[in-house]
Amino acid sequence: MSANPAVQTSRAPGAAFILKKALVSAFVALVLFSLMIGVRTEAGPQGQLVYWTRFGDLAAMVGAVFGGSIIIELLRQWWGPVDTVKVVPASVQRGLSLAGRLLPPVLLVFTFLVPVLFYNERYILDLAILVLTYVMLGWGLNVVVGLAGLLDLGYVAFYAVGAYSYALLATNFGLSFWICLPLAGILAAFWGVLLGFPVLRLRGDYLAIVTLAFGEIIRLVLINWQSLTGGPNGVTGIPRPTLFGIPLSPADDGLAALLGIEFSPTHRIVFLFYIILALALLTNWVTIRLRRLPIGRAWEALREDEVACRALGINTTTTKLTAFATGAMFGGFAGAFFATRQGFISPESFTFHESALVLAIVVLGGMGSQLGVALAALTMIGGFELFRGLDQYRMLVFGMAMVLLMIWRPRGLIGHRAPTVFLKHSQAISSDLVKEGHG
Amino acid sequence: MSGNPILGVDRLSMRFGGIVAVNDLTFNAERRKITALIGPNGAGKTTVFNCITGFYKPTSGAMRLTHEDGRAIQLERLNDFRISKLAKVARTFQNIRLFPGMTALENLMVAQHNALMRASGLTFLGLIGAPSWRNAELAAIDLARTWLDRVGLLDRADDAAGNLPYGDQRRLEIARAMCTQPALLCLDEPAAGLNARESAALSELLLSIRAEHGTSILLIEHDMSVVMQISDHVVVMDHGVKIAEGTPREIRDDPKVIAAYLGADEEEAIAVMESGT
Amino acid sequence: MDYFAQQLINGLVLGSIYGLIAIGYTMVYGIVGMINFAHGDIFMIGGFIALITFLILVSFGLTAIPLILLVVLLVSMAITALYGWTVERIAYRPLRHSFRLAPMLSAIGMSFVLTNYSQVAQGARVKPVPPIITGGYTLHEGAEGFVVQLSNIQIIVVVTTVVLLALFTWLVSSTRLGRDMRACEQDQTMASLLGVDVDRTISMTFVIGAALAAVAGMMYLLYYGLVDFFMGFVAGIKAFTAAVLGGIGSLPGAMLGGLLIGLIETLWSAYFSVEYKDVAAFSILIVVLIFLPTGLLGRPEVEKV
Lengths: 439, 277, 305
Prior knowledge:
heterotrimer; B: 277 residues; alpha/beta; Rossmann fold; 2 domains; six-stranded mixed β-sheet; four-stranded antiparallel β-sheet; globular; C: 305 residues; mainly alpha; two-stranded antiparallel ribbon; two-stranded antiparallel sheet; L-leucine transmembrane transporter activity (chain C); cell membrane (chain C); membrane (chain C)
């Protein structure tokens, strides 16, 4: 036997193989879609259900799966087997690492210039603020999930606590944004510790469900405690932030009037943009600092091996609690910003959906990487906006993108870990070695 | 045995459900000495370690750790991290437990957590970059560098711990334990998986740790050449009870020990009888 | 007392539905160690398919209710099982040996896909059906005129659940597939070395879990008389809570957790407030986990040092 048949077949599956595979896929699709797409139900005029058939749509879908299956199979052959190791030439690697080093400053400068470049494009400014909010949320959750390795599916709870703290303090007591901002962070951190206590002993998926339950509890309480939170109607008339007490309004004591320029609503958007940018950068700076402090190293060590941490005299309880509190605090800041930017909040903004989205940003970013999280937030939120025109298909496409991105890059866009201290030279640590934590 | 024990284990028992892993064990570990705990597989040695280092709460019995200044600590009353933090007992693990995704240097920095936590003013001084913190950090890096040098890993300081060869990982784990500046160092099979040359280097390292730092060492070991060569005192366990103790020479000639090993595993018995000559 | 007895019945029926969904979570968790976030949506799809099959059969002029129910059950189980299989094949199998969070996010993504797929395919409005099974028995007539009733549909839900559980227990304990599943749960590598087709076993786990969820979906449709594209989320979270409460990985635990959640919810609504019933369920979960970190019937995790 000269040729190895196994290798041959795997290298060049013939047309028959591809066709067979596509036919099987099409058949599966036919069964799957037969009733869900082939038949459409709707409540009729008298409330009774009626249905009609859509065989054309069904045929189109099955055809699409058949064609798609062939295309995917051809692409796979063209691409080669998935698990082959591709050797990247040293020059390309050097180029990539240089680009990697240059990217953050370039990105930062560009971000600073966004309001200048897009001053007249309100839509882009709004989108930029949204992206930055998620960058900040991602960086905040990154402390808990990426560094400490604790899985938190209820991060949105802290976002909600921050938002409602500001909204209620401002509307009930007339406190200004700048006083409420730290308060919102502290309150959220407090709730983080409160959540932290019961979950200290839990691991993995138990932790996941408890954090998820916690997020739901907070949301349900916000919906039902009508006297305090306004229930599903939310809180309206949340004051806008001021610049050292000067409102950015068309009034006589407004900033525009004081500067003697013509008022424009864009001023406020730009102001909000720089607030969230500053908050996000603060989050980033603190996180980078913390990583190089004993507390941050203890977080990462906790992710790597909790038993070894205890053997080294690290109090894992306080270490976990500080991680929860720090992450929650950033979430609280972001929440307060969200409230002041919207001027209106309701429990609808704080669903599990948001938690999942922020978690997706952290994981897609490559757990622990600050740059990765920023890029992932840009990709996810920006991409989501791109599909705005798709209307009701938007979440469908979004879900598919999430699945595909995970399959494409399970360890995220930037999978390396940068050491926090080095003797001679800092070398990135491959993601294969970095543990994901068990919490 | 004469009188300056760092660790006194008194009538220690540990039961898991109906299984008695350690039964009424009493022994002392002398200060600045190397005490070895040996015995066939399943004798309960690691359980003893887990009790001493607080991972298990013993069913009954006491463990008293006496510091050089006379301060005594009952280990059974402390739990997990406090034993390392307050009683200054450090340990390594049978199946190496490094932080694989962190560099060798970072591993040693994590070991100095408690000292650095104080120096960083519970993080706040560190966050603003106070000079006192910077000095403390430099000192910590220096200590780490010293230990990396001692275990011959200075060149690999910036490599991920998980990337190091097995023998290096074992030595790094010892260095990491030493960075907590322990009074008592507990090593769980430090020579497991090492070749003869590496075992010899390990023996030398342990002897030098004892000589230069005055650290008392308690070790579990199957490699009889290491045990016979470096230990001052040997405690032999079988089925959860102590069956013998004494100098390596006494142990080697003790018929009870030989019988225990013969009952368990012929090869190990031969190793006991032939080693250390 | 009568009021309490009535609530107990209602709670047990709701709990049976949760239990059926929870088994799917627990099986998948036991064998691949991941939370199948899309499982709640599989339940929803099951409900939709049952609804559509029912409509078609009725429009064909079928009137024999037992026959309709049987056909609906079989069709819904078969098609939903295929959904379960497809989800595993597309979203989880490529990530089988990957980093733990990747399959979880892929599952969350899949859940979004299924929710919005049925919204797009069937519209966002709630789909009501007229009561299909009516009638019941009066168990006890109280002094104040309060009646404890056991409706036929409640009987059907409980009986179906019990029968399926018996069938399922037999499947896991006495068939070759069940043995393979338990082997994969212990050690996939070893199982494959001993000739167990791991891929096939895992696929079958998803298929069975989805089929049970389809039954739950159909029961939900019969009991509440409506389905909508969003019902998978809440029911999924509740069932997952049930699985964790009972001790994830444990099959009796899933059923026990399901019943408990059903009872807590019903009794809380009856005696305290409807608004906070979910808060009560989640709070009890948290409290239980504080004292029993691996749930009621879960194996305690032994920390190997």
